[in-house]
Specification:
QueA-like, Thrombin, subunit H, six-stranded antiparallel β-barrel
């Protein structure tokens, strides 16, 4: 399976640069995975496709302001750091630009010394382990100094950092938002619950591994980076009950999907658990638990395009993407949505 099989040509002007004022007013392309039939709706019409007894699975991770701009101590050399994952209390695995200025022993200062970081090791793919020093509470300092880690294809400044959070974000730890969830408002979620749809909340802290380009030509040779997930007892019971009663499990976002598929037993049952997952879903994968998926439009040749292709078929996904381009849908993180059902 060649990575080029998942390429499509996207005009630059269709990459959404700003979130819509009303989250639920995004467009919604509905793809019926068994027939290939497509419909064009507004996101708030999602109510028409959910049924009492279904279970909607949300990823309640919260994005941290993980982008820090500092300088190498004693110089004015600008260094940018992206926090990827916490290894221990004050030690983080980070992505550093430029990496050549961050050899072990390098001290980086942020906010006129309010926060300093010492590079202690170079690990996989050139990422740096940095030990931070500060007075006070790290999260408060990070909230003051850090910026939201928007993807590089978004060049507009974000006016309200809460727009890169879901309305149900709770557990801090992500370096990127689970963007399919950005379309939901509290009012829309309340209406969904009122119609008898269960809501289960799981947590997967999104790292950059999900978004790293596939650098090998053979898809099966690509290796995903691991991300931490947690499923509580209440969520597991909700999902198991839904399946036992004949309801559908519909994930909001590829991160919720990867969480459930990582934790599910072969019979589709699930239990409370936590751990690290590097699951890579591509065509040929047999889904154990997922019935439907709410997702955004993903980058060409990305692991996320491969995941949705595994669910609906590569040809149907690429045909839907081509139609979305013709109809000028908005793509990527702040873009429009797709429901695969």
């Amino acid at each position: 399976m060649d990575v080029k099989d998942f390429y499509y040509d996207l005009p630059q002007e269709l990459i959404a640069q700003d979130p819509l004022e009303d989250r639920a007013s995004s467009r919604l392309l509905v793809l019926h995975k068994d027939t290939g039939e497509r419909e064009h709706r507004v996101f708030s019409d999602i109510l028409s496709y959910l049924r009492p007894g279904d279970c909607l699975v949300l990823n309640d991770t919260k994005v941290i302001p993980a982008r820090l701009i500092g300088s190498r101590e004693g110089t004015n050399a600008r260094i940018e750091i992206l926090l990827l994952k916490r290894r221990e209390k004050d030690v983080w695995e980070t992505l550093v630009k430029p990496g050549k200025k961050a050899r072990p022993g390098t001290v980086i200062s942020f906010g006129d010394g309010l926060l300093t970081g010492t590079v202690i090791d170079v690990v996989e793919e050139g990422n740096r382990l940095i030990r931070f020093s500060y007075e006070g509470i790290f999260e408060e300092i990070l909230d003051r100094l850090g910026q939201m880690p928007l993807p590089p294809y978004i060049t507009h400044p974000l006016k309200d950092k809460n727009r890169y959070q879901t309305v149900y974000a709770k557990h801090e730890g992500s370096a990127a938002a689970p963007t399919a969830g950005l379309h939901f408002t509290e009012e829309l979620l309340a209406r969904i619950e009122a119609m008898g749809v269960r809501i289960a909340r799981v947590t997967l802290h999104v790292g950059l591994g999900t978004f790293r380009p596939v650098k090998v030509s053979e898809v099966t040779e690509h290796h995903m980076h691991s991300e931490f997930y947690r499923i509580e007892e209440e969520a597991a019971e909700c999902i198991n009950r839904t399946r036992a009663e004949g309801g559908r499990v519909i994930c909001v976002g590829t991160t919720s999907c990867r969480t459930l598929e990582s934790a599910a037993a072969e019979d589709g049952s699930i239990r409370a658990c936590s751990g690290w997952t590097d699951i890579f879903i591509y065509p040929g994968y047999r889904f154990k638990i997922l019935d439907g998926l709410i997702t955004n439009f993903h980058l060409p040749e990305s692991t996320l395009v491969m995941l949705v292709s595994a669910l609906a078929g590569r040809e149907r996904i690429l045909a839907a993407y081509e139609e979305a381009i013709r109809m000028k849908y908005r793509f990527f993180s702040f873009g429009d949505a797709m429901l695969i059902i």
